[in-house]
Structure formats: C-alpha cells, structure tokens
Amino acid sequence: MTTAPASTALAPTTMPPTTMTDRLLDGLAFSIVERGYRETTVADIVRHAKTSKRAFYEQFASKEQCLIELLRNNNTDLIAHINTAVDPESDWREQIGQAVDAYIGHISARPAITLCWIREAPALGAVARPLHRQVMRDLTEILTALTGSSGFRRAGLQPIEPAIALILLGGLRELTALFVEDGRDMRGIAGPATAAAVALLSPH
C-alpha cells in the first residue's frame, strides 16, 4: 500500500465541492490519505462523499476511472499554480526558482495524491497510459514555454528541447516520490531541482 506520512498527507482541496463529481473526487482523495489507493473501496469513497454507490456509478465506471479523473484535475491545478507563480520578465534563474517553489508548494499540500500519481497510476496499465502521456506532455510544454520567455531570451538561452525536459521531469518525479515515502521536508527538493535545471539550461 502506498501512503504518504500521516503528518503531511493533506487532502487535495480546501474549497467545498460544488458537484457530485467533485464530492466523489474529494471522497477518493480523503480515502487515499486515510488508507492508500489500493486499499480504498468504492464504499470508502461514497462514505467520505456522503452519498451512495448508485451515485458513484452514475459518474464513474470504476474506482480506476475516478482516480484518473482525480489525477487529471491535480495536474491541471499544478500547471495553473506554476503558470501563476512564474514571472516571465524575471531573470531566468529566478524563474527556475519560482517554478520549483510553485511545484513544491503544490505537492506539499497533497503528498498522498502526488505519490499516488507517481507510484500507483502506472500500475493501472493501459487505462492510465493516456493520462500519463498527457501529464508529461503538459509539463514538457510548460517548461518549453518558461524557457522561451523574455527572461531566458535576454540571457541568450534557447527553449529547452522536449527530450531534455522529459529527462529533467523524470528525475524530479522520482526524487519527489522518495521524499514523500521517507516523510522528508519537501523543501529539500528545491536545491537539487534548481541545480539540475540550471545545469541543463546554462549556456555550454
């Protein structure tokens, strides 16, 4: 069972859910924090959502589909958080720091969901493959856009190549998983992540 340490495993949202789908997604999120995804049942989800199994199956065909939607929403929130945090006019090194800080802020608020994306979603096999590819594509695109900003252009830097971005993101995902699993302070990711990005993006 993959769970985040209880002291840091916060629920992914703080705003009251507005639709039945939102309630069910929050129900799954709370159960992941409480029991881990593998041990979570539809009964757990509807208990947290304060609804019925019938209502669940009106929205989702399975627990797996519910998880995929939860992780898709989580990715959308992450992208928005980074976009809001980064000032494209800042020095390029500052932009890297802003992006890393935004990433850490997001995952620190929902470590159990983050760990589920990294460790559990791949185990779903083909059903989760489109989600994984979409997430990595979205993150690659935001890195490409960030490194194509005016702050990077002023330094004479070219936008990061997609293959290099994937290498950077893959390492960051694994480091994130290790920090969550070990219950370490997520701020410890900042130094290595920033150093790796600067090294890859610096003029050679």
From TrEMBL:
<dbReference type="GO" id="GO:0000976">
    <property type="term" value="F:transcription cis-regulatory region binding"/>
</dbReference>
<feature type="DNA-binding region" description="H-T-H motif">
    <location>
        <begin position="41"/>
        <end position="60"/>
    </location>
</feature>
<dbReference type="Pfam" id="PF00440">
    <property type="entry name" value="TetR_N"/>
</dbReference>
<keyword id="KW-0238">DNA-binding</keyword>
<dbReference type="InterPro" id="IPR001647">
    <property type="entry name" value="HTH_TetR"/>
</dbReference>
<dbReference type="GO" id="GO:0003700">
    <property type="term" value="F:DNA-binding transcription factor activity"/>
</dbReference>
<dbReference type="InterPro" id="IPR050109">
    <property type="entry name" value="HTH-type_TetR-like_transc_reg"/>
</dbReference>
<protein>
    <submittedName>
        <fullName>Transcriptional regulator, TetR family</fullName>
    </submittedName>
</protein>
<feature type="domain" description="HTH tetR-type">
    <location>
        <begin position="18"/>
        <end position="78"/>
    </location>
</feature>
<dbReference type="InterPro" id="IPR009057">
    <property type="entry name" value="Homeodomain-like_sf"/>
</dbReference>
